[in-house]
Amino acid sequence: MKPGNGAGHESRAAAELAALVGSRICHDLINPLGAIGNGVELMELSGAPGGPELSLVADSVAAANARVRFFRLAFGRAAPGAEIARAEVADLLAAAARGGRSSYFWAVEGALPRAEIRAVLLALLCIETATPRGAEVQIRREGGRWRLVAEAATIDPAPALWTPLLARQVPDGLTPAQVQFGILPPTLHDLGFGIEMDVGRSRMIVTLGPD
Fold first, then answer.
1. Which of 12, 51, 126, 163 is deepest in the core (most CB within 10 A)?
2. Facing residues of 210 across strands?
3. pTM recorded for the entire structure
4. Smallest Cα–Cα separation from 148: which of 166, 135, 159, 157?
5. How many domains does the chain have?
6. Any idea where the Histidine phosphotransferase ChpT C-terminal domain is (predicted)?
């Protein structure tokens, strides 16, 4: 395991480079996805017969676009001082919910620092691994602390991933689907945030906030 608290210059440079790579990939994917979506929309407006095949393409493009937008905020670079409006985040989560198993309720008002939003989205991706059948997730911010409450039929946080994460450490042997567990610890460290988790039979609460 690599301790988040002792992250040195090299690990910070690697994290920054990974964020830039994420931003570049997502940026380059969004434009062609948008073009495909526009083309499908024009075909629908023209009255040309489309059938279920065209609807499938439209739904798939919308789901892919939503996922890429989500990843762009979660894995991309958060410029110092940048903020994100409530409407943008709420729209992003609503679109992500349409293409996934989980639903999200964003109970936070006003614009917020992009760096904090990035940490929240990474935490949501971590929660996603513990709720394989989907969940209803409420996101709140009170007193500078974020509270993510997931209600789900199945909750199974893997100790090999969550035990290091709760210590702001990077787990060993991560797979591509688990990369959020490697990015969230240094992100929390840079924010001066800690992370806590409380798990019950059908509820999982993850809290992010100042140490």
1. 126
2. 193
3. 0.79
4. 135
5. 1
6. 87-199
